Every structure is written in C-alpha cells, then in structure tokens.
Amino acid sequence: MHVPDGFLNIPTSIATGVIAAGGIAVAIKLAARELVDDRKAPMVGIVATVVFAAQMINFPVGAGTSGHLLGGALAAVLVGPGTGILCLSVVFIVQAFLFADGGITALGTNITLMGIVTVVVGWWIFRGVVALLPRARWSIAVAAGVGAFVSVPAAASCFTLLFAIGGQVPVPLGSVFAAMVGWHTLIGIGEAVITALIVSAVLATRPDLVYGARFGTVSARPAMTEAHA
C-alpha cells in the first residue's frame, strides 16, 4: 500500500503530512504512559523489526498499486496504540529514505494510512470485540485478529478517498477502489491470522508484555509466576 511520489497532488500530500505530524505528536504523549515498565522496551524494537520485515514483501494488486501486510493492529495490541504509531512511523521513514519504498513527498500519506489509520481502527475494533468476549487469553488473540482484519480494508478505503480528492494519475477511481479495497480485504484475512498467531504466542510465554492483555484478562502476570500460584 506504499504510495509513491506523484500519485497524489501536492495539497493532498501536505494535508496528510500535517495529519501525520499531529498523530505522531499525540502518539508521543500516549507512548510515555504506555511504556512505564522498562521490561517492555525490547518489545518495541521487536515489533518494529517484524513489521519492517513483513512490509518489505510487496506484490502488485492492480491499478498501479501494491499490497503487503501492514501490522498496525499487531503493534497496537502488543505495545499500545501510541507506541504502535511511533514504531510504524519509524519503519516508514527508514523504508522511504533507505529503500525507496514509498515516496518522500508521500511519507505523510503513508504514515497516515498505514501508521495511524490501521493502528486506531485496529485498536478500537480490538477493544470493542474483547469487551464482548469472555475474560480469557484466547479472547485477546481473537480480538486482535478481528481488529487486524478490519484495519486493512479501512486503510485501503481511506487511500481511495484521498485518491478521489487529489489523485494525479490517469486511473479510473472505480479501478483503484476495486484493486485496493478488494485485494486488501483478502490481505486482511491473512493479516488477521498472522496477528492472532503472534499475539497467542507472546501471551503463552510472556503475557505481561502484551499491552492489550490488560483489557481482556483478569491477570497479565508472567507465565512463570502463574505456574507457582
């Protein structure tokens, strides 16, 4: 979903840049409250690395666009929405400047779509679903998967809206919508499965490191502590 240079006009790119800057500013404040435990700091680096590796695998989906896993919901559930936005923003900056993956002028657009929309949508869908499920660890993984599934086509839909406002390439809007939303709905299924599996694996070993666990389980203590309870 990385938007290249020239795909959107300058006013639209500037607008998304402002949104991205504002989102990062808010995320910094949120992250200060999310990372109160120094033991969770390594998880931030792990999440950024996993998302970076997953996003480097791109494949065309038509209408001049490409698709890949996004990782917004995964980051939000593991380290918190504010920290998740910061993780993904760093990933997009490195990709744009060092790997030419996504345009420099489109950096604000990519951060907004993949770093803010996916995290915010994924996080609040997660919160809504987990509130409806039993207070158990499996509920966290299921809710994370649902959040991941919804977040991907949500970001694709936002891109289609931006293209309708400031698209610069001669591609019919209907083709862009079909390619982005249609294919990213399928990608969302894969993202949901991967997100649920990763969250389940971390919960099985170190539930205390999963930020979202505090919203869906009675206790988020380490597995070793529970074994002696």
Describe the structure.
- Helices cover 70% and strands 3% of the residues.
- It has helices at 10-34, 41-55, 72-79, 81-99, 107-132, 137-166, 173-205, 223-227, and strands spanning 59-62, 65-67.
- Helix 3 packs parallel to helix 7.
- Strand 1 and strand 2 form a beta hairpin.
- The protein is built from 8 helices and 2 strands, in the order ααββαααααα.
- It has 229 residues and is mainly alpha-helical.
- The chain has one domain (10-227): Arp2/3 complex 21 kDa subunit ARPC3, CATH 1.10.1760.
- Strands 1-2 form a two-stranded antiparallel ribbon.
- The longest helix has 33 residues, at 173-205.
Fraction in helix? over 70%
How many H/I helices?
8
Poorly predicted spans? 218-229
* Overall morphology: globular
Q: What strand line-up does the widest sheet have? A: 1-2
CATH top level label: Mainly Alpha
The average pLDDT value, as a whole number, equals 86
Instruction: Give the helices and strands as they follow along the chain.
Output: HHEEHHHHHH
For this entry, give a set of tags.
Arp2/3 complex 21 kDa subunit ARPC3, mainly alpha, 229 residues, 70% helix
